[in-house]
Amino acid sequence: MSAHGGASRVGAAIEAAHADGRGAFVGYLPIGYPDLQTSIDAAVTLAENGADILELGPPYSDPVMDGTVIQEATQTALAAGFRLRDTFTAVREITRRVDVPVLVMTYWNPVLQYGVDRYADDLLAAGGAGLITPDITPEAAAEWIAASARTGLDRVFLAAPTSTDERLDLIVRNSTGFVYTVSTMGITGERAELDAAARTLAARLRAHGAEHACVGIGISNAEQVAGVLEYADGAIVGTALVRALRDGGLDGLAETARALAAGTARRAN
Question: pLDDT tens-digit profile of 111-127?
Fold first, then answer.
């Protein structure tokens, strides 16, 4: 079954949030931080405290777009002995406990090394919803596009403010679930002011026919979540959640997740 035509689990979660009068809250956490079991419990905690979609990042030794808080967490996970197959264990355990779509945000090299079809099959078997692929473009992803079409997994590509119209067209045509709308160029982390470029980019994506645009990079509080949801379908939060887990454990994470989720209610016009 193709992920096109309404079968997208991620798209369905966004629509369910909209039907509930809110934008979607997408929460990111690294797998294996501070250890594998705690990272599983943390993802469940996040889902139980307002996240509509989970975005899980397997640690990678050469992260091109992670800020310092996330880099420190992934280094800790790698030092604790994280292995690629732990990704599937984590997804399986999480989806057994909560009914929230789980996307894996992965750099492309580990998927290639594992085998694209094998990765897709194992992710599907574990209950995963799809992949976010930050460092591969649609034209270089033919094998993954075929594997995701075959398995019905969602594929989320990234769009940046610098993307040309031609590139946005390609990204929109090949993405399912949502288009990951990068608010600022550079690494992840919190920004006091979210870039106006994200608003412009979301409008451009809609003009190209994108069903759902979710904005990530730089969102750290409920006010910023609410601001983004004035023009986007979902807000993606990472650094603020990783910091909450680091500093306050599962309770701190739950508290921060609830605070962020409070920003998702659509203001009545």
Answer: 999 999 999 999 999 99
